[in-house]
Amino acid sequence: MLLPTGIPKLDELMGGGIEKGASILFSCIPGVQGEPLVEHLLYTRLNVGDKCTYLVNNKKPSDVKRSMKDLGWDIESLEKKLSFIDSYSGFMGIQGEEKYMISDPSNLEDLDSMLMELFSKIKNQVFIFDSLSTLIDVHGNPKEIQEKLIKWVLLCKKRDITSVYLFTRWPYGDIKTIENIFDAVINLKTMEERVIFSQYFELSRANWAKPVNKRIPFKVAMGGVHVYMPKILVTGPHNAGKSSLVEALSTKSISVDRLGTTIALDHGKTCYNGFMAELFGTPGQERFDPIIKLLSGEALGVLLIIDSTQPETFTRAKDIISMTKAKGLPYVVVANKQDLPDALNPAQIRDKMKLPDEVKIIPVVATQKKDVFKALDALFEQLI
Amino acid sequence: MATKKEELEEILSKLNNVGGIEGGSVVSRDGLVMASNLSGNVDPEVFAAMSATMLGAAETAVSELAKGETGRVIAESEQTKLIATGAGPLALLVVMTSPDATLGLALVEMQKAANKIISVLST
Q: In a mutagenesis test of the A interface, which of B5, B53, B73 is the best target, namely the one with the most A β-carbons within 10 Å?
């Protein structure tokens, strides 16, 4: 049985979710926070009724709750199903509030006997260990920890406890040996390609799923972990409906328009189906071409919108695509104004524009928000 | 080792409180946030996109006149001055100052910061 994490793209990489009883390591390079992914998973599992136990040794349990609340999750109503093991307060000499306390986290034997006892009591749960690297830091002997880890992971598997470990890849020496203990490893890394800085996750391996070589860029915001597209260009001829499309797709949008025409750009942010994207709408008239060129760099994909009732503007649409540096990027043609009687259908448009079969044409009515997300889906599908 | 983003954030934080500067962003020429320390309720993504358009449009307007290169764009409001200047071919630097800031010092410090940004991005 596979347990979905609630992060759609992560689930997809793993063939649907984490295998029940499996052990999974979130392996983060320093500077990337793995906590939001684990919190997203935790929230999802609590919400479907799973019981969860969360061991924390680098912050207070209340900090975990607060950070989940900051992501917009009502954690209080789920608290009955969640128990914490507080391995931090005792260490810091402050008063803890949890039932399970570990007074000296550097004492591995204490931790071991407590966890072994716990694992033989509970069953069919989710167990989170936050974080493995802190344990290595305070204890200092990775070899001994590895031996215990193997025991913990095995017992959890026997008891159908799905165990999740957070780990930051400080230079501990033999990280491979640690990773090999787990059934699955998710890597969290950063990329500095050209000028954008972004973070992504990838599945290093999962014993139950086929390997997929995909990097998923993500961003953490309200609602948890989102696949992040820092720039999607929305462009097309004058009066095709670019601003309407940006507005229809966005949770929050801004337009710099004068006399009903966009003169600088439209900017919108869309959160949809686990995706988050920044939409950049360009002006359409030829006199603003320098701005289109300026804004089109670094785009990941293009929504090319056309007025389906105005075939004479289709040449301009193709000119814009070739003018933007976006040439060669995946694009979707958005056939707008389908509610008008003389609108051409996708087949007629494909014929008039001489578009190859692989280019998708999505009929929409932007002002009524009709089918606009189908266009976004079609583009996302090509991008990830 | 500090990432480029951290180095840019360092440059921005050193710029704060000098010559009335109250915060700023390093933005890619095409409008994406590279680093930002704007305070309060500002959406850095929107701010970045608009700043890049503002400077880009001004540069294009000036170059249409064939009157040399645009040094900076200054937008003044009752509550702030907004200054955008190029920082090499990849990036621009934009800062907010207090409304009564005297621009001399702020502009000199911005130029120094812009040069540092260029060298961070060219490594």
A: B53
Mean pLDDT of chain A: 89
Cis previous bond, A62, omega within 30: no
CB contact under 8 Å between B46 and A267, yes or no, is yes
Closest CA of chain B from A197, distance in Å: 7
Instruction: Return the residue matching tokens 């189906």.
Output: A273
**H or E segment and range at residue A256:** strand A252-258
- pLDDT at A100 exceeding the cut of 70: yes
Tokens of A317: 């649409």
- At the top level of CATH, the class of B4-122 is alpha beta
And the tokens for A85? 């093991």
The tokens for A364 are: 């929409």
- A294 with B32: Cβ contact below 8 A: no
pLDDT of residue A23: 96
Q: What pLDDT is attached to residue A293? A: 81
A81, A74 contact by CB (below 8 A): no
Of A192, A194, A252, the CB nearest to B3: A192
* Encoded tokens for A261: 């025409």
Question: Quick check: A265 and B32 CB within 8 A?
Answer: no
pLDDT in tens, A18-57: 999 999 999 999 888 899 999 999 999 999 999 999 999 9
Which residue's entry shows tokens 């704060």? B16
What top-level class would CATH report for the domain A2-220?
Answer: alpha beta
The token pair that represents A5 in the structure block: 């994490």
Closest-CA distance, A65 to chain B, in angstroms, reads: 24
How much is the pLDDT for A2? Answer: 94
A194 three-state secondary structure: coil
Say if strands A252-258 and A224-235 run parallel, antiparallel, or are unpaired.
unpaired
Give the global pTM.
Answer: 0.78
A227-383 falls under which CATH superfamily? P-loop containing nucleotide triphosphate hydrolases (3.40.50.300)
pLDDT of A327 > 90? The answer is: no
Query: What are the structural domain ranges in chain A?
Result: 2-220, 227-383
**Residue B56 is nearest to which of A254, A269, A294, comparing CB atoms?**
A294
